[in-house]
Write a structure and sequence with these properties.
Strands 6-5-4-3-12-11-10-9-8-7 form a ten-stranded antiparallel β-sheet, with no helix packed on it. With 354 residues, it is an alpha+beta fold. A hairpin with a 2-residue loop joins strand 5 and strand 6. It is 21% helix and 43% strand.
Length: 354
């Protein structure tokens, strides 16, 4: 406690008071954080000193409660409880206010956000459609206060941004530069209505002063990365002559026998690779030289007629039925003059394991 320009502890404070008439006034001023002055110093009696100490203790308790309440109210949300802005969001014109407070945008104006938010990373793909056409640009940043630079070629702008959390609101500062001028902005994002409404408020500052913007978005659905993958289709039983194609493919692949693998194809057979299609016996033999893993082919559909057919399925690696799928395949088939089914084309698509 500060008294007459000096810092005193509670005991010194009670022993060096000035007079009894200002005791109550001193206590009140101390509780309000104000200064005080008295005329002379006298020792306090036990009763007065006891009353004063009770009041001081009460003031300290009240002050601590106020500080604790403020700390709790202003404490940032923990990472696991922060809002997740991920989703597909469409502007609600009737609830929005554009630059200058000019009311909602016209019916011809459509604004969509595709937000992928995985703390501390956030990506926003902005799609704008109006009477003149459409354009799209992407912002990427982190929510830990670090600076980010986004070059928006489609609108000829460079945006320097930084974002951080204030409780459950994401606060972003932006500085935009372009050949046509620039602006600075302070943005605030929050979720409402159980996460179905995203509110974006901005103060734009440029040579025309400060102007408010409010955009309210309604959630159309989850971000594609949040969608649950489709359930795996059940295995189907193949006719024996079709099942032989898959079992031979697995066996020769595991053995690393390129010649045997090539024998499963027609002479003009096709295999898809990253660089394009590979065609013919010689090219297939070269492409299939390095195979040795425990390939597992799981058929989910097939169809054949007299001369052509197909098998659709999934593939993985391992000898257990529970091995997760690592990709999808389509084999188109053609029957040889000897009546044997051969692979005319092999298309594989890798999928990311969950």
């Amino acid at each position: 406690m500060r008294f007459q320009g000096k810092y005193l502890d509670a005991n010194q404070f009670t022993k060096t008071f000035q007079n009894r008439r200002c005791n109550r006034d001193v206590t009140a001023r101390y509780a309000l954080g104000r200064s005080f002055e008295c005329d002379h110093s006298v020792a306090l009696g036990p009763r007065v000193r006891g009353d004063l100490m009770k009041e001081l203790r009460m003031n300290i308790i009240v002050s601590l409660c106020m500080v604790g309440g403020l700390m709790q109210a202003g404490a940032p949300a923990t990472p696991q409880h922060r809002p997740d802005f991920s989703g597909i969001w469409r502007l609600d014109p009737s609830a929005s206010r554009m630059i200058g407070g000019g009311g909602p945008p016209s019916d011809q104006y459509q604004l969509t956000w595709l937000v992928n938010h995985r703390e501390p990373h956030i990506e926003v793909v902005v799609n704008v459609r109006n009477a003149f056409g459409s354009r799209e640009f992407t912002f990427r940043c982190t929510t830990d206060g670090k600076g980010c630079v986004n070059e928006l070629a489609s609108i000829n702008e460079v945006r320097r941004m930084a974002a951080s959390w204030e409780a459950n609101e994401l606060v972003m500062s932006q500085q935009a530069t372009s050949p046509h001028g620039g602006f600075t902005a302070m943005d605030r994002l929050r979720l409402e209505e159980g996460g179905q409404r995203l509110v974006f408020e901005r103060i734009v500052t440029n040579d025309r002063g400060d102007r408010p913007v409010k955009q309210v978005f309604r959630k159309l659905g989850p971000h594609p990365s949040q969608r649950q993958p489709p359930a795996a289709l059940p295995i189907v039983d193949l006719p024996a002559d079709l099942a032989r194609v898959l079992r031979d493919y697995e066996r020769h692949w595991h053995a690393g026998n390129a010649d045997a693998l090539v024998s499963l194809f027609t002479e003009d057979g096709l295999v898809a690779r990253r660089g394009g299609w590979i065609r013919g016996t010689a090219a297939l033999r070269e492409a299939l030289q390095r195979t040795s893993s425990q390939l597992r082919l799981r058929p989910v559909a097939y169809s054949v007629d007299e001369q052509v057919g197909y098998i659709v399925g999934a593939f993985g690696y391992g000898d257990q039925p529970s091995t997760p799928d690592r990709g999808l395949f389509i084999l188109t088939l053609r029957k040889s003059p000897a009546g044997r089914w051969l692979i005319a084309a092999d298309l594989d698509i890798s999928i990311r394991p969950e």
